[in-house]
Design a protein that fits this description.
This protein is α/β, with parallel strands linked by helices and 301 residues long. Helices cover 39% and strands 19% of the residues. The strands form 4 sheets. Strands 3-2-1-4-5-6-11 form a 7-stranded parallel sheet, sandwiched between helices. A two-stranded parallel sheet has the order 7-10. Strands 8-13 form a two-stranded parallel ribbon. Strand 5, helix 5 and strand 6 form a beta-alpha-beta unit. It is globular and about 55 Å long.
Amino acid sequence: MKTYVVTGGAGFIGTNLCERLVADGEKVIVVDNLVAGNAERLPRAVDFRLLDVCDTEALVRTFSQADVVVHLAALPRVQFSIEHPFEAQHVNIDGTLSVLEAMRRAKVPRIVYAASSAMYGDQEMLPLNESLPAQPKSPYGLHKYVGELMLSLWHELHGIESVSLRFFNVYGPHLDPEGAYALVIGRFLKLRKEGKPLTITGDGEQTRDFVHVRDVVDAIIRAGNAEHVGKGEVFNVGTGQDVSINTLAQLIGGPIEYVPARVEPRFTRADSTRLREVLGWHPSVSLEEGIIELKRIFQIT
C-alpha cells in the first residue's frame, strides 16, 4: 500500500483518481479548498483535508507520510486566467511552489503534476509532440509550463522525483458542466438537457483531442509507480485523434447556435508515442463510447 496525497482531489479528475486508488487498495489523502471541488463525491475511505495549497506549513504536516503527491490543484480556466491573471498565477504558480517546498521539507519522494496541452498554443505541425517549443496563448498555459520547469529544477536541486503529464481535453464521469475541464462537452450536455441550442464559438471547425478521464487516471497511476521515470520527464496524454467542435455537437445532438470566436488554439492533437513507449499507456475509451456514457448519466435520450 502506498499513501497518495492528491491536491485538488475533490475536483473532476481528482474524484475519478481517488475512486481508482481506493479500489486498488491505496491510502488516499485529499487536499482541497473546495473552491471548485465537491468532497461529497469522494469515496468514504478518503482522508479529506480542507486546505489551500498555498498553506505550505499545513502541507508539510499533511505530506509527512506521503509516498506520492499528485498535484491537480489549479485554476484551470483559460479565459479566467486572461481576465484575472493575479488570482490565477497565485494558485497555479505560487501553489505549485508551495507543494514542492512542502514536499522537500517533508521528504516526499515523488510528484505527478497535471500539466496542460495549453502550453503548446498554435503550432505549425500536428500532432503535437513534447519536443515542440512552448507557445502559450493564455496565462494558464504559461503557468502550467512554468510548473513543468519548476518540477524539473526541484528534481535537480533536491532530488524530488517528478513526472509532468500534459493533459489534452479531459472528459468523463463527475465532470462539472460549469467547470473548466471538458468545458465544451459539459456545456453542451447541460444545454442539451435544458433543450437549448448548443453554442459554438467561431466556425466550429477548431479541433480538440478529447481523452477520457479513466485513461487519464491510468496515466497518472503509471507515472506514480514506474521506477524508471522521475527525472522531470514530460508526457502528452491524449488519444491522437482530433475532433472538430461541430462534430462533437453532432454526437451530442440538438440545434446549434454560433457565437463570436474567442482567444484559443485553433487545432490540437496529441502525439502520445512517448507515453506508450515509456509507460505502456494507451487510450481505451473512444469519444463515441464516452459521449454515450455521459448522455446516459445526464439522462439524455
